[in-house]
Amino acid sequence: MKYLLILSVLFLGVSVSAQNTNKVETQIDKIISQLTLEEKVKMCHAQSKFSSAGVERLGIPEIWMSDGPHGVRAEIEWDSWSYAGWTNDSCTAFPALTCLASTFNPELSYKYGVAIGEEARYRKKDILLGPGVNIYRTPLNGRNFEYMGEDPYLASVMCVPYIKGVQANGVAACVKHYVLNNQEVWRNHINVKVSDRALHEIYLPAFKAAVEHGNVWSIMGAYNKYNGQYTSHHKVLINDILKGDWGFDGVVVTDWGSAHDTREAALNGLDIEMGTGTDGLTSSKDNAYDYYYLANPFLDLLKSGEIDESVVDDKVRRILRLMYRTNMDQTRPFGRKANRQHFDIAREIAQEGIVLLKNNKSFFPLNPETTQTIAVIGENATRMMTIGGGSSELKTVHEISPLEGITKRFTNANIIHAMGYSSGPSVYNRVIASDLDQDSLKQAAVEAAKKADIVLFVGGLNKNHEQDCENGDRKSLNLPFAQDELLNELMSVNKNVAVILVSGNAVAMPWQTKAKAIVQAWYLGSETGHAIADVLTGDVNPSGKLPMSFPVKLEDNGAHAFDELSYPGDGVDQVYKEDILVGYRWHDTKKIKPLYAFGYGLSYTTFKINSASVLKTKFNADEVVKMNVSISNTGTVDGAEVVQVYVNDTKSSVMRPVKELKAFKKVKLMAGETKTIELELPVNSFAFYDERIKSWNLEKGAYKLLIGTASNQIKKTITIDLQ
Ligand code: BGC
Q1: Active-site residue 255, yes or no?
Q2: Is residue 85 included in any domain, yes or no?
Q3: Model's pTM, two decimal places?
């Protein structure tokens, strides 16, 4: 009876929502029939830097967009890139998406999405330009901090709840940048050549998950080309794959200034053109919007009949559909501005994303009551990291610096601070060296280190050009601004140096063996300093895991193991020569040990995987492997561990990586506690993309399920047979 009731409610639910959908689609058709050609075209391109036009005559609203992806950006002027200077547009700065990925916690991703979506809604935004899910191919990419790491499965699992959370507010998420925008160097024209297999196995899955599981309402094209055509109006990528195979029913938005041709834009699936300048990328002159590819030139082709009206109708239909989901949905909530709850969520994500890389002799946690002298050294101890970085820059209500957080928590300690080095001001697209005297800064730091019991070095990268910043890549894997030299000096005068890296990218660590402890702290947003202090004191037991491999040296990374055509390309073309072997797939398969492996991260407690079991070992393609893993916290403090399951195809007709992540679960365990968790692995996720048949291929035979706590810490193996 109960079952019947549930079933009928379910069917009722389905039919009600199907009815609603039909109603909306009928409404949309009605609206389209009333629009003039001019009105339709106006909806397909920008009317200001961050909005597109509605139709006043019919009460159809404008669409307002905002960056994304780590907070709702400050208001920009109508027709210039300057900030508008409002006083009510400060936001909560959430941790960068690399940090979110490091939590390996999809529940936090949902909280993130809901909270940022609430702020977007409160600020009257209809589209939030995020999340970013481009794959971490090289540690030099200036925008890695905005993305979710090197693994397509991790990025897929982590982006979906963010999208759902944002959209629960009646605000469209806009997953970006579709696709193959994996470096910033030459991003506006580089032509990426990559195998179909790598495209489908590595670069597309997160976008596919965003569409198929996240039901994302909009997607942003990328700047680069793929196989000779710009990605923002690409026949194969948009018409065939996105709108065809995946059935995407939402809106394709350009990246700002990534449209290049009217016919292609019209016919290859672009719906809204943003950011184009008529006299150069993203700079505009009077009435520039009318000169957009999808403005007057599009109208002309429609009027002459060269392009059929059904083409613009499809775009308008998608735009109206997005509106019914957002600004024409009378029932959507009102949102909330930056508030305590949002800061708490930002702090929680930051705490869980911080990765403890090294902890010699339990250096951390430090006693918060200590009366010792702690030297906090490094520019990143005080530098604001919400400023700079490009479009993800934020104006936040507050940003607690690491120094402030540490000072507030270690109330009895004697905290001394020295900058140690200076990187220069934050200026977009240019590097301006600091005019401070670096020798004096260094000397002062060494003196401070001599006096201190403990040195907490807070360095890393920053949001300047050629660091973690849009429109440029890093020049080397090493720490910039002579930090390696400085660290060596500090370590020669003080034996208790711990390094806290604030960055969105892997860095080389020539001083690694001499550091007592190393913490990867990412860009943590408003609550940076508090979250760092929470972890350093053990108020929070670290549980973050690396979402990318840290190579010892640059050439150990797959993209850099070849000539310059692989990275950064020859100025025109670029070939992804490592193919599917991105990140740990490269390290494992080529047997190149990373400095720190994908999925790795320490805790203040210890864990033991006691056993892993499956109910049966023979499976068909449409089945799901249900696995039980028993895990214990064998230490003395509560903590959380991420159980990771990788798959190895023991025999294949094609090359396969040694292992690929297919399931993970974060589990919280009190000291001494044991839990059995269940993980599910759909067998068809073991398939590879077979270029011979242009489709996924799941071959029969034995597959090993490798269960561990990092990609290089496999504790149990189960072999199953696929029939
Ligand atoms: C970036 C996008 C961003 C857009 C609007 C572009 O330069 O690539 O990620 O959303 O600007 O600011």
Answers
A1: yes
A2: no
A3: 0.96
